[in-house]
Amino acid sequence: MKIPVTGFVMDSEDDDRQHSHKLYITSFNGSPVHVHSISGITAINDGHSHQYASWTATAPTGVPHVHSYDTFTSMNQGHAHRIQGTTGPAIALPGGGHYHLFEGFTTIDGSNPHSHAYSGRSSNEVGSR
């Protein structure tokens, strides 16, 4: 089965030869795609918390869907944590659009190895970034 996908590729200007381009998908099977911003502060563990802010991966608009996300927290006490996962399903907003809930645990890092819980609600949908 073939699914039509449109988009464009841009040079990421990284020195890493294995990841020199980024693919931006603008439509999937004829539907435009969208993203959501996610941000928040982790739970306190080992005497501190971390901030995070990023964008979800793209997903088609107008169909049941979830988004993946993958980012790093702020640096605190000499370390950062990775946050990655998949949002819950779309939740409709009364005025149109939708949001997603997300939650999980960071990677285990730090001189005293530990992780942090995090959870939140994404922004309303926005066109592909």
Description:
By secondary structure, the protein is mainly β. The chain has one domain. The chain has no helices and 13 strands. The strands form 5 sheets. Strands 1, 2, 3, 6 and 13 form a 5-stranded antiparallel β-sheet that branches. A two-stranded antiparallel ribbon has the order 4-5. A two-stranded antiparallel ribbon has the order 7-8. Strand 9 and strand 10 form a beta hairpin. It is flat. The chain starts with a strand and ends with a strand. The model has no long low-confidence stretch (mean pLDDT 87).
Short description, anyone?
The chain has 129 residues and is mainly beta.
Residue-averaged pLDDT, rounded? 87
Distance between the termini: 28 Å
* Main pleated sheet: 5 strands, antiparallel
Low-confidence stretches: none
- Overall shape: it is flat
Supply the number of helical segments.
Answer: 0
Number of strands: 13
Q: In terms of structural class, how would the helical and strand content be classed?
A: mainly beta
Q: Provide the succession of SSEs.
A: EEEEEEEEEEEEE
- Structural Rg: 17 Å
Roughly what fraction of the amino acids lie in strands? 35-45%
Helix content: under 10%
Number of domains: 1
Organism: Paenibacillus artemisiicola
Protein name: YmaF family protein
